[in-house]
Design goal:
Layout: H1 10-38, E1 78-86, E2 97-102, E3 127-131, E4 137-143, E5 148-151, E6 154-156, E7 159-165, E8 170-177, H2 187-190, E9 199-200, E10 203-204, E11 212-215, E12 218-219
Parallel strand pairs: 1-11, 1-12, 8-9
Antiparallel strand pairs: 1-4, 2-3, 2-7, 5-6, 7-8, 10-11
């Protein structure tokens, strides 16, 4: 014997129609939220600092461990700083100008206003620039800087300054090193929303004996 299913009532039909309408309205919202979640956050800003080398031209060779007319290689732990410059959607930014500047292995900047009594390194100027290619990548050979006294009672952790310029955007930031004991009390780094995002863990370079590697990707609008 065959039994027919009862026809759906008016209330059931109305409930189903409301559910379909809600789903159709929420679907675009969910898509927007998912797209926003997948976008990368812009790299956090940091101060320019007092020792930007305004009176110098950056070394564009990509190798800051040697200077023209120098007698050898810069002192300190050799370091490769590299990464990608990308926009919030993860697309490489071609033609971005990436400048870095930093203290030497004794914590001294090659800048006339730096009164730190630590010695200068005649083989290290600490100021370089490169331009990203189609893959958005940049790379510098440099040395790991040292922490230094910034003012009475304050020691800044070791860091490397970045100034990244594109066609629409400019980003000034700093990269720090994992394990530096002065990081927790540094008011400039700790003012960032996510300080740990600017702290990099070093690894051994498999291609360049004696070099450590710092991978630091930069996100901005390009």
């Amino acid at each position: 014997m065959k039994f027919d299913s009862p026809a759906p009532g008016r209330r059931t039909i109305l409930k189903a129609s409301a559910a379909l309408l809600a789903a159709s309205m929420l679907s675009p919202v969910s898509s927007v939220l998912a797209e926003m979640a997948s976008r990368r956050r812009r790299t956090q800003e940091q101060i320019l600092g007092p020792f930007y080398p305004v009176m110098s031209r950056p070394n564009r060779s990509g190798d800051l461990t040697r200077v023209t007319g120098g007698s050898g290689r810069a002192k300190g732990q050799l370091l490769i700083v590299r990464g990608r410059v990308i926009d919030p959607d993860g697309i490489p930014v071609m033609g971005a100008d990436v400048e870095i500047w930093q203290a030497n292995s004794m914590g001294r900047y090659a800048h006339p206003d730096d009164t730190n009594p630590a010695p200068l390194d005649p083989n290290f100027e600490g100021f370089g620039a490169v331009t990203t290619g189609a893959d958005g990548r940049y790379q510098f050979k440099t040395i790991k800087p040292l922490h230094y006294p910034a003012e009475p009672g304050m020691i800044r952790p070791a860091h490397i300054h970045f100034d990244v310029k594109g066609k629409r955007d400019e980003l000034i930031s700093q990269m720090y090193f994992e394990g530096d004991p002065y990081i927790p009390k540094d008011r400039f780094l700790q003012s960032a929303v996510d300080p740990e995002a600017l702290v990099i863990k070093l690894s051994q370079s498999p291609e360049e004996p004696g070099f450590m590697v710092a991978e630091f990707d930069i996100v901005f609008r390009g």
